[in-house]
Automatic annotation (TrEMBL):
<dbReference type="GO" id="GO:0003723">
    <property type="term" value="F:RNA binding"/>
</dbReference>
<feature type="region of interest" description="Disordered">
    <location>
        <begin position="72"/>
        <end position="92"/>
    </location>
</feature>
<dbReference type="Pfam" id="PF01479">
    <property type="entry name" value="S4"/>
</dbReference>
<protein>
    <recommendedName>
        <fullName>RNA-binding S4 domain-containing protein</fullName>
    </recommendedName>
</protein>
<dbReference type="InterPro" id="IPR002942">
    <property type="entry name" value="S4_RNA-bd"/>
</dbReference>
<feature type="compositionally biased region" description="Basic and acidic residues">
    <location>
        <begin position="79"/>
        <end position="92"/>
    </location>
</feature>
<feature type="domain" description="RNA-binding S4">
    <location>
        <begin position="1"/>
        <end position="60"/>
    </location>
</feature>
<dbReference type="InterPro" id="IPR036986">
    <property type="entry name" value="S4_RNA-bd_sf"/>
</dbReference>
Amino acid sequence: MRLDKYLKLARLVKRRTVAQEMVTLGAVRINGRQCKPAAEIRTGDVLDIAYPSRILTVEILCDDENVLKRGAPGGAYGVREERRADPAEKPW
């Protein structure tokens, strides 16, 4: 599944266009590497997402589009780490 679509379906961002912008700016990384919005994600990958006020590290537990659309019973991702981001500092 595409990274931008996963971010939207997993409800990590509200809109797919916002997800595309975040990935293009470098605020989202897959397994520590910068990527493009069309990058393929798989179960077990680790995403680092830099929001304006926090940095979230999650592990992908489900990458099936149909399951995510219906609402994954076990969750689409597991939170590994969440920390506050300094507003003056750019995380990437």
